[in-house]
Amino acid sequence: MQSRHSPQGGTAVVAARHTDEPDTTEIRRLADAAGYEVVAEHTQRTPEDAGYAMGRGKVERVAATAADHDADAVVYDGGLTPGQYSNWVELLPPGTDLLDRYRLVLGIFAEGAADRAAQLQVELATLRYRLPRLRQVTEESLLNRATEKGSVVLDVEDRIDRLHDELRAVSDRAERRRVERRERGFDPVAIAGYTNAGKSTLLHRLADDLSVGALDEGHPDLDETAAVEDRLFETLETTTRRATIGGRRVLLTDTVGLVDALPHDLVASFSATLDAVADADVGLLVVDASDTLDEVREKRRVSLAELDDPRCELLVVLNKCDLLTEEELAARREDVAELDRVDDVLAVSAVEGTGVETLRDRIGDALPGETLRAELPNGGETESFLAWAHDHGTVTDREYTGETIRFGFEARPGVVERARSRVDDLREGTADRSS
């Protein structure tokens, strides 16, 4: 059975080389996410061969296995340079597609990208990947002759330039939207983490207009076997929802799941994900605590490396804590708490709801804010201001004292500054009318 995302599909032979014991679990899951049925695999522990990434003899055996199974593709767990790619193609049976880890993930994201920005970013990453390989496999003489008349290489270069221009325009519009949201008093909170950590389920727990009960019946986090059978890349674009946390209006952004060993261009294509975390007031780094301790450490390392030391307060959320013993959870909490970059560690079960209210309280504490206390004349202008204040922050301790209204206003520092200016204007207007 093919997975939900099937940009390619068919049968595949997996090849992997590692200095330690090769583990093909994730590359098999990636192949499944791309719609491939893995029919065989070859692994190798020897040092890398500069010409093939694996030994030539091993590559020949991979090619023979692909021929025996009439496989549609060979999937290599790692990156192949243009030269290595060309050498593999020469050995593989005619018509057998060659996918390294990077191209495999590019295909998954190309199929799943929904919004225009994501589509442009993934297309750009794909063309950047293809360009040096096109150059490598094209005969030099043919390339030279085609240069004067145009060639596929030149067409790709032109398209890359156009994509850069389109992405700059999209990025400018996204930046304007972020500024507008902040001015309206929304606090941005980003949910990030390794793919399949449970970010989408946590979003459903925290958002005002969503619930875990609204998740599709087949959603992996709701499956009792989800700890070992989750599908990769359930979320292929950022999703933003409103939430109310501690009386504050929050915008929660569920970001694309991260994965290990991706090329710089592909990571750069996740700019919506990385920007959402960089611009957030609070970042939630969700970790699948049901993984082994070594897996938790590795996925946490990958996630922190890709997030590139965000400015926001960073809370690590150990999800799926209901699947652990107290001793196992304590070991993971202790391991994560040692990191300098992490501000706090919280354990939750997004499916069961365990620890979610504590997480809400901690997010509220982490949101930047100031409080303005004021007293204004009881009248239409003040009521209009208070309506604005409700839309941009939290109005507290409202007290009517006959001719005046006393109140507190809590919000982001920039919003409080705007409120203070409006309060001063109202006071000056009252003074002018009374003089």
Automatic annotation (TrEMBL):
UniProt KW Transmembrane helix keyword: no
Protein name: GTPase HflX
Residue ranges occupied by any Hflx-type G domain in the UniProt entry: 187-371
Source organism: Halomarina oriensis
Annotated positions binding GTP: 193-200, 254-257, 319-322
Gene for this chain: hflX
Key words of the record: GTP-binding, Magnesium, Metal-binding, Nucleotide-binding
Cofactor: Mg(2+)
Binding site for Mg(2+): 200, 235
Keyword Translocase: no
Superkingdom of this protein's organism: Archaea
Pfam families per the UniProt record, alphabetical: GTP-bdg_N, HflX_C, MMR_HSR1
